[in-house]
Amino acid sequence: MATASKDYDFSSIEPKWQAYWADNATFEAKDFEDKPTFYVLDMFPYPSGAGLHIGHPEGYTASDALKRFKKAQGHNVLHPMGWDAFGLPTEQYAIKTGTHPAITTKQNVANFTQQLTQLGFAYDWNREVNTTDPGYFKWTQWIFMQLFKKGLAYVDEKPVWFCPELGTVLANEEVLNTPEGPRSERGSFPVERRPIRQWVLRITEYAERLIAGLKDLDWPDSTKRLQENWIGRSEGAEITFDVSGHAAQLTVFTTRPDTLYGATYMVIAPEHPLVPTITTAEQSDAVAAYVEKAKSKSDLERAELAKEKTGVWTGATAVNPINGREIPIWVADYVLMTYGTGAIMAVPAHDVRDFEFAKEFGLEIIQVIEDGGEAAKDAEGALLEAYTGSGKLVHSGEQSGQDSETAKAAVIQRLAAENRGKATIHFKLRDWLFSRQRYWGEPFPVLWVSESDYAKVDDSLKSVDRPVTCLIEGELRHAIILPEAELPLELPVVESYTPSPDGQSPLSKAGDWLHVYIDPKTGATSAEARDGWIQGIRETNTMPQWAGSCWYYLRYIDPKNSEALIDPEKEKYWGMPDLYIGGAEHAVLHLLYARFWHHVLYDLGVVSDPEPFKKLFHQGIILGEDGEKMSKSRGNVVNPETIIESYGADALRLYLMFLGPLEAMKPWNTKGIEGVARFLRKVWRLVVGEEGGLQANIGEGTLDSETERLLHATIKKVTDDYSTLSFNTAISQMMICVNQLAKVERLPREAVESFVQLLAPLAPHIGEELWLRLGHTGSIAEAGWPKHDESKLVEDTVKIIFQVNGKYRGDAQLAVDVSKDDAIAAAKANERVQAFIQGKSIKKEIYVPGKIVNIVAV
RNA sequence: GCCCAGAUGGCGGAAUUGGCAGACGCGCUAGACUCAAAAUCUGGUUCCUUCGGGAGUGUGGGUUCGACCCCCACUCUGGGUACCA
Fold this sequence. Notes:
Layout: H1 10-23, E1 37-42, H2 55-72, E2 76-78, E3 82-83, H3 88-97, H4 101-118, E4 129-130, H5 134-149, E5 153-156, E6 159-163, E7 168-170, E8 175-178, E9 181-184, E10 192-195, E11 198-201, H6 207-214, H7 221-231, E12 233-243, E13 249-254, E14 265-268, H8 275-278, H9 284-296, H10 298-304, E15 312-319, E16 326-331, E17 343-346, H11 352-361, H12 404-417, E18 421-427, E19 432-433, E20 446-450, H13 451-454, E21 469-472, E22 475-481, H14 511-514, E23 515-518, E24 525-526, E25 534-538, H15 546-549, H16 552-555, H17 568-574, E26 579-581, H18 589-603, E27 616-617, E28 622-623, H19 640-647, H20 649-658, E29 666-667, H21 673-687, E30 698-699, H22 705-723, H23 727-741, E31 747-748, H24 749-759, H25 764-773, H26 790-793, E32 797-804, E33 807-815, H27 820-829, H28 831-837, E34 842-848, E35 852-857
Helix pairs in contact: 1-25, 6-7, 19-20, 20-21, 21-23, 22-23, 22-24, 23-24, 24-25
The structure holds one RNA strand.
């Protein structure tokens, strides 16, 4: 095993130790080992054809170092890797070349694996998962089955974003608002609204729990707030207004029932079902034209032209239930059909948008909350802006004089008594659009049967409480779920991976696969007709990429189990990830969807904790050398492989961590890597002599006390810094330490060994090689972790700073326990201090023990 | 517009119960070694200075014996979000 190389030759050392870790299963995580467990999870990558980007090794180096550190400290560490392999690029490559996505995926995974290995990331590959593997997606489908049976999945034909270029629908979250209008997040193609039949998951039923659960999570605050805002819980009231001269009533949602007396008009969304009903004959042309225009400008300009408020009076009026006032009902597109009830009571005095609208159309503005002088007013005392704060009510009948909070409750109570209102909570969060018209995704384990056949089907295959139905080619169909025995439902072989222009999935053309006979009792399927079996059509949509990534962290714990998603004993042994490292770009979607599924699995008793990710860390982004985001078009992309060729994986790992705080956004600087490369050569030379043997000055003996103190301080700091992922400062401390060790005449073997152990998690290849050359067998990862000796850190003298009027004027080494009087006396004895207090009167003398003396002299 | 994060030498960044600002590294620079270069090693490197000192952590105020750190107002940069009633 030992190589005799004299110089630091990373190109021979690194592959050697990578092979060693693989051959010896050094980082295999054994179930039920009697040690404290530590589960460190990386966000698994999409194995694209482009290979690893410099951003991947950043977070992965941190987790790899943490894993090695925790293992050395005696933990049983679980640190797996897998592939989020369903996805668009692979499918688009298939459309272009005809290559089956599974083949492309396999090649890409092989390439990624090789690149990760080259970086020295030693995962437990026995636990590798791949979302496209039938043994994996069987359980993705199984989870869907549970959602279906619980009534959390349904089909809807509401308008959704459709991208003609990609030939698929997109989730709201996959559509970006750009100056050119809404565009697809991937590829930036124009998108439009289209009504298409979709599977939707009722994530909104978990909204309350998803908000509440955030409280105890050790996540970056900004990420928690992002999720909070996304879920958008708001407390308020629903209030029902009578429409004059109609039986119809208009219900609005408001968070400010206290401002009800200030409601001077109402607005309903152009899509509101009551628009045609209440519009008067005189206004019908204008309203129809407005509604038509709102529809045609879709959300594209609607978001774009948000500055100008537009709208039309319907001709109808409503009655304010609190004071009987008659107020006009307008149609305007600043009210959205998709939030609340699609209608609002407008209180222009106390809502910015209503204020703008009222100004635009000359509608009445009545102030009902005192602003305490905060809002800008004109000479006559009329509001120049909306006052949105709280305060005492005025012009509000019997509520006048109450504060906002009291009035809110009082108004709700009053309306509730008349059955005209109630306290409610609304969420911004929408249900999760869960289907895609694509080939390369998990097929839904769903069959569509006729109404009469549905009656024959066993309840175990149904969503009993909330049956799912839809019209397919004009016929009413009922959804039933495949039984577990029929899973996994694999993708059929198709001739073309292209979706049809009408937005149908490529699966809709797989005739043999599409039509099946079903045993209504068991759900067994067959291509042949059988006695008593019914006919069905398979669902042709596939699941979105989020599906597979929603629960992969569970599968690592029990990756090969064909009987269950996860063995409960193993789930209890490992628990949930102790740390989850990944980019902030997933702050909302992935992390919210995964939490939702996890809550459902918790309800099902599959997992023992409602929250999956207790502690979350976002690594920052590495920018190009020009300080801009790395991109091919800018030509500032740094390729990890070329760096490894010239400097080695250890240097790259070290440098990635040395650049700055892990969470920060920081520019790459190729020259800077020279510094850590020099450091590694210095460490090498510390251990290995010019002739290739151990350095002659390594042996028995002790360090001088100053060096010894530094070594122990280094052990302490590095240990602390690793625990908090502060690798940049750990490296800086190790540099200081090695610079000192290089100056020492005789080096005790133990001191050198401790140092190498500290370095090994970040630079594992050189760590192993030096450990070997120091005469050890076995991996340094299993050699334990050095402990600092607190007694070695104790100093008997300490440097005390002398200040006059807060400015540094000198210092002295004084005994650690020097008294205040002695310290101040020492300061006054200092020549420079004397010069500055000469002829002045001393007002104050401050002594901060062990730190500073400050003499205030005027 | 709103929410969040940030601003420290030529550059990346250190420094927290409020106590020497600029650790460590890059770059630059002087020197040693060398015929020379690379590599390596040693020293210097915030700015101004009459060499006594003075100024200095985005800007302006404040609290304090003392502020990169705490408070108020603002500027700029990055990220998220987009009429959510």
